[in-house]
Specification:
Shape: globular
Number of helices: 9
Organism: Micromonospora inaquosa
InterPro entries: AB_hydrolase_1 (IPR000073), AB_hydrolase_fold (IPR029058), AB_hydrolase_sf (IPR050266), Epox_hydrolase-like (IPR000639)
CATH architecture: 3-Layer(aba) Sandwich
CATH topology: Rossmann fold
Number of domains: 1
Order of helices and strands: EEHEHEHEHHHEHEHH
Pfam family, one: Abhydrolase_6
Keywords: Hydrolase
GO molecular function, one term: hydrolase activity
Oligomer: single chain
CATH class: Alpha Beta
Radius of gyration: 17 Å
Distance between the termini: 32 Å
């Protein structure tokens, strides 16, 4: 199964990293590589179908996306392997653990989607944190509303980092992405299944994430008997770019709880 990917080494235990919706493997590497530095893991960053440099070669459904990832894992990794992801990538990673637990050694879920339908997400209704005047000036006007909802650490420097990530990597296929996100099968068919995954899990959320929130993620912890849940203040949906030092610390804790994986 063809998916564009980059990897940090040819040997070592693998951690396969899945991107946020519409983002590329280059953006995922910018988000997660600092957290994984020095671990000796073989970091693999994938472009999903219709994302980055991977063509849209499957139907625009989340189940087809998940099946494509599973087929790639079957072909390219020695199962089970570590899976990491942000937002939609984390949603798919959790789905792989439900449907193909034989493929998954542990899960790092950063700002994961839990309930894919926007109207049913439990989002924080607190007022956003204060921000300096003009903190969004460098962003295109079309992104102002999104970034205002997404960011908890609201500074021009964070905005610049997020914009660089959004613009990195291959172009993707916006038509495919729109069809996926607006289609009737955006949700995985087993999204609400009461399935337990007993490997080491770390769920990391942003207190000011008004895209997927943090409450649904806490309720989902019943599926992870070996799971750690963290909610970080002054962090939103782009948490890896907002709080990289805390993300690294929590990633190291996750790896310490994974047998046979050295932590930096």
């Amino acid at each position: 199964m063809h998916l564009a990917f980059d990897q940090s080494a040819d040997t070592g235990p693998a951690v396969v990293c899945l991107p946020m919706f519409s983002m590329s493997r280059a953006a995922t590497a910018t988000a997660l590589r600092p957290a994984l530095a020095g671990t000796g893991l073989r970091e693999i960053y994938l472009d999903l179908p219709g994302h980055g440099d991977t063509p849209a070669h499957c139907p625009p459904t989340s189940q087809a996306m998940l099946d494509t990832v599973c087929a790639w894992l079957d072909q390219h990794t020695d199962a089970p392997t570590l899976l990491a992801g942000g937002s939609y990538g984390a949603y798919l990673a959790a789905g792989v653990a439900r449907q193909r637990p034989d493929l998954v050694r542990g899960l790092l879920l950063v700002c994961p989607g839990v309930t894919i339908a926007r109207h049913s997400r439990d989002l924080p209704d607190d007022p956003p944190l204060e921000a300096p005047t003009g903190w969004l000036d460098a962003a295109p006007t079309a992104l102002h509303a999104h970034l205002d909802a997404a960011l908890g650490h609201r500074t021009p420097a964070v905005v610049a980092t997020v914009l660089a990530a959004l613009n990195s990597g291959g172009p993707g296929d916006p038509t495919f992405q729109q069809a996926l996100q607006s289609g009737p099968d955006y949700a995985l068919p087993d999204e609400n299944a009461d399935v337990v995954f007993d490997g080491p899990v770390s769920v990391i959320t942003g207190r000011q994430d008004r895209i997927v929130g943090y409450a649904d993620q806490f309720r989902a912890m019943r599926h992870y008997p070996r799971g750690t849940y963290t909610v970080i203040d002054a962090a939103g949906h782009y948490l890896p770019y907002e709080q990289p030092t805390l993300l690294r610390s929590l990633t190291q804790d996750w790896l310490r709880r994974t047998p046979g994986i050295p932590a930096a």
